[in-house]
Amino acid sequence: MTKEVQEDMVVSLDYTLIVDDDEVESTQDGNPIQFIQGHGQIIPGLEEALSGMEVDSTKTIHVKSEDAYGESDPDARQKVKKEEFSEDVPLDVGTFLDLRDADDNVLSAQIVEKDEETVTLDFNHPLAGKDLVFEVTIADLRPATEEEIEHGHVHES
Ligand code: ZN
Q1: Which of 23, 55, 88, 157 has minimal CB crowding within 10 Å?
Q2: What is the distance in A from the centroid of ligand 1 to the CA of 148?
Q3: In CATH, 74-122 is 2.40.10.330
Q4: What residue spans in the chain does CATH classification 2.40.10.330 cover?
């Protein structure tokens, strides 16, 4: 039986992510990511396109923003007074900050604007609103164990 990507298989995936013709992420150094197919562990558009691929096969996959990180939400921008930050935080446009909300969740935000007294934080995912291109190779495939499926993550073998 040919092994192919299908639900409950552990997929080892090499990929290069290209956005607006720039390479933004790559696993090329022999460290594929691992995930369980069919469990929403990767973006939906990518998971769907991988279905049926065999070990060592290669594909270029185009994923529209709505099947990736969604549209950029203008309401996810927030102005914050500079004095709210401790002095050692560099408040430069482009900087990513990890912030804690009232429930102690860590939220990542990028500074997208600043003026004399405030900075504007954007809580959208940096890839929100972007169409993504993945160049993928299936490095390995094996069935997930019952325990892995129960836990919802891959165990080191
Ligand atoms: Zn576990």
Answers
A1: 88
A2: 6
A3: yes
A4: 74-122
